[in-house]
Design a protein that fits this description.
mainly beta, 11 helices, disordered N terminus, elongated
């Protein structure tokens, strides 16, 4: 709720706002829309009508105070529905441009106002009193006096974000559609609170986590961010006791409510960071189809994403069905060497005290962490490096020759700036964006038992298939593997150097990534969940009370498939095969 410039005692304007439908188009006034609005207080009734009709409606708060709207049920044109809604309220239309309607009380001598709309079938004005002399006036004449305060409330939010007990951020379906995102994480990642969340666009660094979209508010972790669907908990995706938002059909999302303060008091310890509630559409008339395909300027990250939604009412609007789903196929983006900036090998060098004592580092004017290009590994390389003893820094070539390893201008202990071998970096095969495909679908049916009570049931299915390479450092990393002077593969020059240094063994570190390849994950996640419930409202003690009873059950399947896992013992045996 937003208040500007005046105390509550002054003139106020109540605004019931609802974003346009899936494609953000203006409403077609003659089109049939399924309404379910029982008689209730005018402020909540007008707000609910705005949400279901995808309109913005303005009305002075004092004009709506103490009044009740009429019952609007079934498939009706917006014109007819608004007429029924305003019966008995003594409210008339002062302005209508096809998207925004302004309501007010009739002035002295003005009982009914008819205005031309931007659409072919304008909404007529409803008034409880019909008199013989109808006055037609202009928008300027019918507009209410200059306002000193404007109050805006979002659709179906009982209290606006600024006056709610906890701050609420709302992302509408129109914003999601404008982003053209194939997954939930793609359109939420631009919100600062979700900066640390995982998703397909984040690098794939785990056999289980590749391409998963786990939301994390304020970097407190996915296990401290509660994800709800229509206010209900969903079965976890099979790993980490968190829900993968890839499994939500984006085509059916009506809005996303994000609560970030004090939510744990109501939901428990899994909501310490906050709650993200995905509100899915439950009323929709007609059929919508969306398709987008694109690629990066480098020709990769090719993505194809079709989505649909279908809804229809039966039995005079008492039974409503909605189904929808979407599919995403993304070819991913390979490692950072596929980008000009990646070829510069950017990274962070953390200077360990064992490499440069802290006092010396401070005296040199060096920070503990340095962001730079040409950052490479200094604790190992691809073909082998002696990492300790008098022969430390002796590196092996693939042809059996050796050379002195370049530790660079600044060596932090495990990484160096300007030294090492080009291509020898942490996670060289790690995808910028993992290759994946996903599918999500939902079906929901609702039946109006009477004007105040309805029963509903829904089934939702989701599947995610991911393909990621190199989770972690270059694998296998044979760190400090002891090599004896009797090893038959040692070059003669190395044996001679060992004898001269009076050593019989040295520690050898290598990744062997170029010939043994990286570990690759090919994972499958599937979830299915069914929910059901009964809800309604009842008038007690002069107020409208809402109630609901619901339940659900779900199942999640996670099937990891890991390739190229090295058998370290066999590698050790191979080193002494002769």
């Amino acid at each position: 709720m937003i208040g500007v410039g005046a105390p509550a005692s002054k003139r106020r304007l109540f605004c019931a706002a609802a974003m346009a439908g899936l494609f953000g188009a203006s409403p077609v006034w003659a089109q049939s829309v399924s309404f379910k609005i029982p008689s209730q207080a005018a402020d909540t009734g007008i707000a609910e009508f705005a949400r279901q009709a995808h309109l913005q409606i303005l009305v002075p708060s004092e004009a709506a105070r103490g009044k009740r709207t009429g019952t609007v049920m079934g498939a009706l044109s917006i014109n007819d529905a608004l007429t029924r809604l305003l019966v008995g309220t003594d409210l008339v239309i002062a302005f209508n441009d096809g998207r925004t309607i302004s309501l007010s009380q009739p002035r002295q001598g003005l009982v009914k106002t008819a205005l031309a709309s931007t659409t072919s079938d304008a909404v007529s004005t409803a008034s409880a009193r019909e008199v013989s002399d109808t006055v037609t006036t202009t928008v300027k004449a019918a507009a209410p006096a200059a306002l000193q305060e404007l109050v805006i409330t979002g659709s179906r939010i009982q209290a606006g974000g600024f006056t709610a007990p906890t701050p609420v951020t709302v992302v509408s379906s129109a914003q999601i559609q404008q982003k053209a995102a194939g997954t939930v994480s793609e359109f939420l990642k631009d919100i600062p609170q979700f900066a640390a969340s995982t998703g397909p666009a984040n690098a794939s660094t785990g056999a289980q986590s590749a391409s998963k979209s786990n939301l994390s508010l304020y970097n407190l972790g996915a296990t401290r961010t509660l994800v709800l669907i229509n206010g209900q908990r969903h079965v976890a995706d099979g790993t980490g006791n968190v829900f993968d938002t890839n499994l939500i059909p984006t085509s059916l999302i009506d809005r996303v409510d994000i609560v970030t303060g004090g939510a744990s008091a109501a939901y428990g310890s899994d909501a310490v960071a906050g709650v993200v509630n995905f509100v899915l559409k439950n009323r929709f008339e007609g059929f919508s189809l969306d398709f987008h395909e694109g690629a990066s300027e480098y020709g990769d990250n090719v993505e194809m994403n079709p989505a649909f939604a279908y809804g229809r009412s039966f039995m005079g609007g008492k039974l409503h069905l909605i189904v929808g789903g979407d599919y995403t196929d993304n070819k991913g983006t390979r490692n950072f060497y596929s980008r000009p900036w990646g070829k510069l090998e950017p990274g962070i060098v953390t200077i360990a005290a064992s490499a440069i004592p802290t006092a010396q580092r401070v005296a040199m004017g060096l920070p503990a962490n340095i962001i730079s290009n040409n950052v490479r590994t200094s604790a190992y390389n691809a073909s082998g490096l002696i990492v300790s003893g008098p022969l430390k820094g002796l590196a092996f070539d693939d042809g059996g020759l050796t050379h002195q390893f370049n530790y660079g201008a600044i060596n932090g202990g495990t990484t160096t700036i300007g030294g090492g071998d080009y291509g020898s970096v942490l996670n060289p095969d790690e995808d910028i964006k993992a290759d994946y495909n996903r599918a999500a679908a939902m079906a929901r049916v609702e039946y109006d038992i009477n004007d105040n009570t309805s029963a509903w049931g829904s089934v939702m299915y989701g599947a995610l298939h991911t393909r990621g390479d190199s989770f972690g450092a270059r694998i296998p990393n044979f760190n400090a593997y002891p090599v004896l002077i009797t090893n038959p593969f040692l070059p003669a020059s190395v044996v001679t150097a060992m004898k001269a240094a009076n050593v019989t063994t040295f520690n050898y570190s290598a990744t062997r990534d170029f010939d043994l390849s990286s570990i690759a994950s090919r994972n499958r996640t599937e979830t299915v969940q069914g929910n059901f419930g009964v809800k309604g409202q009842v008038g007690l003690f002069g107020s409208d009370w809402k109630w609901d009873v619901d339940g659900g059950a779900g199942k999640a399947t996670f099937a990891p498939d890991i390739h190229n896992t090295p058998i370290t013992a066999d590698f050790y045996e191979a080193a002494y095969v002769v």
